[in-house]
Predict the structure.
Amino acid sequence: MPELPEVETIKLGLQGQVVGQTIKKIEVLTPKSFQGDPRNVNGQKISNVFRRAKMLGVELGNSWIVLFHLKMTGQIILVSNRARFVGGHPTSDIQGEMPNNSTRVIFELDNGSKIYFNDQRKFGWVKAISSKLIANSFNSLGPEPLEETFTLDVFKSQLQKRKNTPVKVVIMDQTVVAGVGNIYACEALFMANILPTRRIKDLTPKEVSKLHQAIVDVLTLGIKHGGSSRSHYVNSEGKKGHFLDFAFVYNRSGESCRTCQEVINKTVVGGRGTFFCRFCQR
DNA sequence: CACTTGACCTGTCCGC
DNA sequence: TGCGGACAGGTCAAGT
């Protein structure tokens, strides 16, 4: 899915637009994509929008929460009552008409705006969950990497949970650190000059420290560029993110390294496509 | 227990 | 053009 920077970008886009609005109607087009009782959502006022790991939460006045997980191809797009979408133009950065054939759930707000949950592959979900139970959804997640609590010591102790696993698999484990996925894992490892296949037990303290900083830096940079749009990701306005224009390795196999000019390689680690520079990363 | 692989879905791209 | 296979931002369950 969208990883932390993409979900954070959606959150920032929604916050100023939907807080204070009331959900007038919810329309579930694909039952698989929605869990829970729509009656807990209908007629409720939105009090807050937040992110935890790669999940987005919309808090309601009755203390229920609409929780979204976008997995690989999910989108959350807000279309204001006056918006006219421009579809089909080759240079357009914007999604076409809504709804489309991957629209799964539609929320209609009292000002006439609509929130579209689109998801081509149907891996993602939306659920209505009471705030009392939300802790259960979050309790196995690791620390939020962009919060103060994500110190080097915390990161070190989290890594201790694994020892003989490739470092890339470990930093993508949501119970170790929340929000890092395939793109940002590849990029963080490049920035820390560490090969993705290295085992945790073989990392030097200096490398662990460098990786800790690289994770924070790459996620921050991802947010700055509005996230990554390899294929499906768009923000709440339907616009693509531009982080990949600056990526060092992700999706760049065969191209030259921005640092040493050697060719970028691709392999498979933990079942996922993995990009690296064999000269910059050791 | 620690770690790896397959399944969940739909669409696109690439080679023959 | 058509067809088969590999692959795609994630996470579970089942397998070794």
In short: Residues 205-224 of chain A form the longest helix (20 residues). Chain A has two domains: 4-138, 152-276. The two ends of chain A are 28 Å apart (CA to CA). The CA atoms of residues 191 and 214 of chain A lie 6 Å apart.
